[in-house]
Amino acid sequence: MKILLSTLLILVSFSFSQEYIEYRESGEIKLKGNLKDRKWDGKFTFYNMDKSTWCEGYYKEGRKHGEFIYYGFGNKDIYSKKKLENYNDGKLEGKYIHYFENGEVNSIGNYQNGKLEGKYLYYDLDGRIYWEGVYNNDLLVEEISYIGSKGPFRLN
Questions:
Q1: 88 touches 96 (CB < 8 A)
Q2: CA distances, 119 to each of 7, 132, 135, 136, 150 (Å)
Q3: pLDDT, tens digit, 9 for 90 and up, residues 64-109
Q4: 129-136 and 118-123: which strand pairing?
Q5: What HEC string does the chain produce?
Q6: Which domains does the chain carry?
Q7: pLDDT per residue over 11-60, tens digit each?
Q8: φ/ψ of residue 140, rounded to 5
Q9: pTM for this model (two decimals)
Q10: For residue 148, what are the contacts with CB-CB under 8 A and spacing of at least 6?
Q11: Could you tell me whether strands 39-40 and 53-60 are parallel, antiparallel, or unpaired per DSSP bridges?
């Protein structure tokens, strides 16, 4: 009886995971991932109408959790990364990067508990910083711009 009871408890506590797919009205796959206890869980892939990948990211118990990468077409139809975000329990957390069409970094920032925190940098197409801001709890507390070789100047 004791063995039967413990087996029953194991079966009851086991959570089921199943594949989840959403389709567009036209029949193309819109997104694909897994459900666990009726919530999005694990890796999800979102698709463009042409069946290319638009975004890949991770969910935990129905909330964004982990790395999200957004893709798009860059120069000469090269498929490249457009944006990288990190999430913790549904809130932006950690490094946040935007990319130019050529794949080079456009801007880098940092999030803490869903709010901008620390330096945020914007780069020109030559890889030089042209704007820098410092955020504290989602508020801009310092702002500097850079123009060519003249060096930094304050916008205030």
A1: no
A2: 54, 7, 6, 9, 21
A3: 999 999 987 544 455 567 899 999 999 999 999 999 888 889 999 9
A4: antiparallel
A5: CHHHHHHHHHHHHCCCEEEEEEECCCCCEEEEEEEECCEECEEEEEECCCCCEEEEEEEECCEEEEEEEEEEECHHHCEEEEEEEEEECCEECEEEEEECCCCCEEEEEEEECCEECEEEEEECCCCCEEEEEEEECCEEEEEEEECCCCCEEECC
A6: 17-154 (3.90.930)
A7: 343 456 799 999 999 999 999 999 999 999 999 999 988 888 999 999 99
A8: -70, 120
A9: 0.75
A10: none
A11: unpaired
Tokens 């909330």 belong to residue: 63
In degrees and rounded to multiples of 5, residue 12 shows phi and psi of -70, -40
Alpha carbon of residue 83 to chain centroid: 7
* Measured distance CA(18)–CA(34) in Å, rounded: 5
Place of tokens 């794949």: 103
